[in-house]
Amino acid sequence: IDKKFQNKGYGSTLMRQLINCIETISAGSNSLIWISTDKDNSAGISFYKKNGFDKTADTCGDEIIMVYKWA
Fold this sequence. Notes:
The protein has about 70 residues and is of the alpha+beta class. About 35% of the residues lie in helices and about 30% in strands.
C-alpha cells in the first residue's frame, strides 16, 4: 500500500479478503498461512499481528516467520 494510503484500513481489508479466499479454496485441507517479514519491520509485524498472525520461533535469515491459524 502506497504510503499516502496507509493507516486507512485498506491493507487490513485486503488481508481479510485474501485470508477468506485462502480458507475457501483450502476447504479445510490446510489451516495455516505462513508469512515472513524482516525482523526489524515493526510496522509490518504489528500489521500482521493485528490481522491474526502470530510470531513463531522460526527465522529465515534476517526474517521472522509468522503464522495464521484457523479451525
